[in-house]
């Protein structure tokens, strides 16, 4: 894809990242994401438009509010850069297609949920349940061939098969996980993963389909076990009282599976001589 489109996508991503920051702060607190206009979380004063330019304002103001000099979290510029990279990457990989739109929307959901879970241990229903509906909807525009629907309903037609694959993946990723997680955590007396994680897994299934969805779940669980488990060991936290942001790790798994999943799965199959 020509450089200019990738550049425009990146700039668009910076601006959109600004909006995602608003969602990350407001959705877990049940605040409206449209009104009021952006305000400083320390002094509540409204932020002028020229102090609200993505990335630029943060750098110019040295990461502080102009009015109260309170620190602006480093999360703000990071999210803007993450979103810019995501938008640019989507255009590089998928061009100007419906698939690119699907993965851009998916990426935005992943960025918001990554941070809400990390900061507040919350995965807002608007995004997980809403995301399931959006994921199912996208299966009607970007056909999902990965799944058993073609075998189960050979006469369903391409769109019917795609929609069924999306729904089957959502079910198979979430329900067995919920049952297993509940049984395991009860047995060990540790904090079970929340319902938010279960809904998030269902949402990953609707977008990714079965194969890439399972990959996302495995990557997320592995990352959570290694990094989260390591953190608990190093900081000597009690796993019975200290909940891990599993959703944050699932979001990383989701993004990796979305962009590199088919290649990872191919590599894995070759390794095992399929
Ligand atoms: Zn302030």
Quick summary:
The chain is mainly α. It is built from 9 helices and no strands. Helix 1 (about 5-25) packs across helix 3 (about 75-95), helix 3 runs antiparallel to helix 4 and helix 4 packs antiparallel against helix 5 (about 125-140).
Tell me what the structure shows:
The structure is a single chain. With 274 residues, the protein is mostly helical. The protein is 69% helix and 0% strand. It has helices spanning 3-26, 56-60, 75-94, 98-120, 125-138, 149-152, 157-188, 195-234, 246-271. Helix 3 runs antiparallel to helix 4 (98-120). The model has no long low-confidence stretch (mean pLDDT 91). It binds zinc ion. Zinc ion binds at residues 40, 42-43, 45, 65, 67-68, 70. Zinc ion (ZN) is lined by residues 40, 42-43, 45, 65, 67-68, 70.
Secondary structure elements and pairings:
Blueprint: H1 3-26, H2 56-60, H3 75-94, H4 98-120, H5 125-138, H6 149-152, H7 157-188, H8 195-234, H9 246-271
Helix pairs in contact: 1-3, 1-4, 3-4, 4-5, 4-9, 5-7, 5-8, 7-8, 8-9
This protein binds zinc ion (ZN).
Zinc ion binds at residues 40, 42-43, 45, 65, 67-68, 70.
């Amino acid at each position: 894809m020509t450089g200019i489109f990738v550049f425009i996508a990146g700039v668009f991503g910076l601006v959109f990242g600004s909006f995602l920051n608003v969602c990350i702060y407001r959705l877990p607190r049940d605040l409206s994401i449209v009104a009021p206009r952006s305000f400083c979380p320390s002094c509540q004063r409204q932020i002028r438009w020229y102090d609200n330019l993505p990335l630029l304002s943060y750098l110019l103001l040295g990461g502080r509010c102009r009015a109260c000099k309170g620190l602006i979290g480093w999360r703000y510029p990071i999210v803007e850069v993450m979103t810019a990279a995501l938008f640019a990457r989507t255009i590089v990989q998928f061009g100007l297609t419906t698939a690119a739109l699907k993965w851009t929307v998916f990426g935005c959901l992943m960025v918001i949920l990554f941070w809400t879970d990390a900061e507040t241990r919350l995965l807002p229903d608007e995004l997980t349940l809403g995301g399931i509906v959006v994921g199912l909807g996208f299966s009607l525009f970007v056909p999902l061939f990965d799944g058993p629907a073609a075998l189960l309903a050979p006469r369903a037609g391409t769109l019917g098969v795609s929609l069924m694959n999306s729904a089957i993946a959502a079910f198979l990723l979430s329900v067995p996980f919920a049952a297993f997680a509940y049984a395991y955590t009860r047995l060990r007396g540790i904090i079970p993963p929340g319902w938010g994680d279960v809904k998030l897994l269902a949402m990953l299934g609707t977008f990714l389909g079965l194969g890439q969805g399972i990959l996302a779940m495995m990557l997320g669980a592995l990352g959570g076990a290694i990094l989260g488990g390591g953190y608990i060991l190093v900081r000597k936290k009690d796993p019975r009282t200290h909940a891990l942001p599993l959703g944050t790790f699932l979001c990383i798994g989701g993004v990796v599976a979305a962009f590199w999943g088919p290649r990872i799965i191919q590599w894995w199959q070759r390794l095992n001589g399929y």
